[in-house]
Each structure stands twice: as structure tokens, then as C-alpha cells.
Amino acid sequence: MPNPTTTVTSTWSTTADLPIPGSLAGQHDGPALLPDGTVLVAGGGDATSAALARAARYDPTAGHWKATGAMHAARRLHSVTVLADGGVLVAGGTSAGSQFPPSALATAEVYAPTTGTWTGTDDLQVARWDHSAVALPDGSVLVAGGTAVRSGQSVRALASVERWDPTTGKWTSVAPMTDARTGHPAVLLDNGHVLVVGGSVPTGRDSAADLAFCELYDPATDTWTPTGNMTVARAGHRAVAVSPTSVLVTGGRPPGRGGDGTFDPFSRATAELYNQGTGAWTAVAAMPAGRQLHRAVTLVGGRVLLVGGTDGGANAVGYASAIEYDPIANIWTEVGGLAAGRWSFGAVALTDHTVLVTGGIGRAGLAAAGAPELTAGTEIFTAGPDTP
User: Fold this and answer.
1) Residue 370 contacts by C-beta under 8 Å, 6 or more apart in sequence?
2) DSSP 301
3) Which domains are seen in the chain, by residue range?
4) In angstroms, how far is CA 119 from the centroid of its own chain?
5) pLDDT tens, 168-177?
6) Over the stretch 345-354, which tens digit does the pLDDT of each residue have?
7) Which is it for the CA torsion 132, 67, 368, 380, positive or negative?
8) Which pLDDT does position 1 carry in this prediction?
9) What are the start-end ranges of the E strands in 147-290?
């Protein structure tokens, strides 16, 4: 597909820095918008990839962050889920840094916004990291897949799924996915089904096979059903709803070596749209350039803001670019750039329809001349008057 683009004037403004910088590299570990309009960031990784227990809360009215109660366990690649009562459930993750294999966490805890404290809840049935987590319409939380340590010095993707009941605080194993996967996004559809999209399966210490396979979970019947495959396999991508019945997927890490002997070292620039009615994926306009480990946020009217990312996690500099997708016109619009490029960061839409971006990695490897450089910088996106 072609990648038509236009340019409009939107603004980025800097605000107070996070008290402690950190990276958020998972699909479901991003900032949580609380009922009072404040934003909670919990956990993540430091410059050595060691997990953090820190938690901080941003007040958009005052324009500042304030440290809040630290979690009981340091964790990264965990899940962060806002509950129906306004609390926040964090589950799983890993406490490890660069050592291999890392250790998986089974612990879970709940944040109470009114007191700023964390309370432990029932442990996961299976310790895992880089899993998906979705709040279901009945108030329960569905956790699926992720990575676990296999006996010996290796890791494996999980097909197992569990559901947390807020009334009992207990996790219960439910039907497993058709296929194991990790690092995958999951999106709740308007019919109450959950769509899981792509991800990967580890094939060695530093290798993995990316997936195009997608499936749907029906909470009413506790069943998983295969749905249409994406046009290409993806990991390091993003998936967000653009309507109650459609989901946009963007980017992903480089395809690497192909079966025909070719090698593609660049992150994917392609995007595609899922139709709930047909279960099919359709390629849409490609982004101006490829990116992975970016963030995608749905805006008013179903438009999607894509921010930051990188072309690779080693010897790289984070992107400052931001683009916006209009699903009706099938056009990407350049909307101005961040003051500080980054990947593996957090992003969330605020109640006034602006978007908060915070933390992440600015550069790594040779580009950083040493340890990865984290940023504590926080920026606010405001759509321009001529945004479609």
C-alpha cells in the first residue's frame, strides 16, 4: 500500500520529569489513567534492565509527578490493568536484569489510589512475563501467554491463560490459547471478546519466531477460536482499537532473514486493520518509516497517534517523530516531534484528550557510548486545529 502523508501543526510541551527514569518495554506495562484524571506509572527497567519497584503519579492540573507507594516487588515486563473500582492490578513480570535466564514472578498486587498503597493479592497460577492483560466487562482480568523459564537454561512461550476475580482476589486457570505466544498485544472488542495479535515464540537464547496467527477469547464460553492471520508476522508491534469492531496494528521488529536468502534489517513500516465482522486483516497505508517498540494511542474519532520507537534495540537512537492515522481517509499525518526521542516508554490519553508520553530509552549501544541512556522526560501532545 502507498503511504500518503500530510503535515499539520500540533504541539508538544514538556512538563515535569519522572522522579526516577525507567523503560517500559512490555505491551501492557504502560501508564494507567486513574478515575480522578491522574496517571500512575509503576515498575519498569533501569539502565541495566534491572527491575524497579518505584511508582509515581502525575497530576495534569498541577503539571507535576509525585512519588507514591512503591510496589512490594520490583518488576518489569509485567502487566498494569485499571480495575472497575479505580484500583490498579499489577501482575507477574521479571525482577531480573541482563542475566539469563531471568526469573519469572508469580506475585500480583493492587494499588489503591485513595491511600497510595499496594496490597498483595493471590499469586498467578503460572509465573510469567511479557504477557497480555485485559479488563473484561464483568470486572475480572484476563492474563494470557507470556514467557516462563523452562527447566535448565532456556525459556519458553506460554499458551496458558488465567482470570483474576476482584471479588475473591483469586486467579483461576481458564482455557489455554490455541498457540503459545509472548510479547503480544490484546484488545477488548465491543462484543466482549478479546483479540490477541501476533507476538513471538522463543527459539533460542537470542532468537525467536514471530507470529502472524491471531485468536479470539470468548469469556462467556471460555473458548479460544482462531481468527484471520495478519498479512505478515509481527513482534514489537502495537495494536489499538479504532472503532468498537476494528483494530489497527502497526510496525514491528525487522523480519531478518527470509526463506529465500534475503535479509531485511529494518523495522516494519506496514500497518493493517482487523475487521471483527469478517475476521480478516486488510493492509492499509504504510507508515512513512518503520518502527518498533513505539506506542499507539487512540484519539477522538478513532484516529491513532503513533509516537517514538526505534529501528532496532541495539546501537540505536530513539525516534522523536510522531504521526497520526486517519482510518477514514487512510492517511498518515506528520504531527510534530518529541523534544526527546525514545523507545520502550509509556503513553496514555488524558481526560482532556491530550496524550502524555514519559520515560523510555533515548539511545543504546554505540549510540550511547556505554549503558543505555534513559530519559525521565515527560511531554504532552495537543492536537492542532487543522488535525483531520
Assistant:
1) none
2) G
3) 6-25+293-388 (2.120.10.80)
4) 24
5) 999 999 999 9
6) 999 999 999 9
7) positive
8) 46
9) 147-150, 154-157, 161-165, 170-174, 186-188, 194-197, 200-204, 207-210, 214-218, 223-227, 238-243, 246-250, 256-257, 263-264, 271-275, 280-284
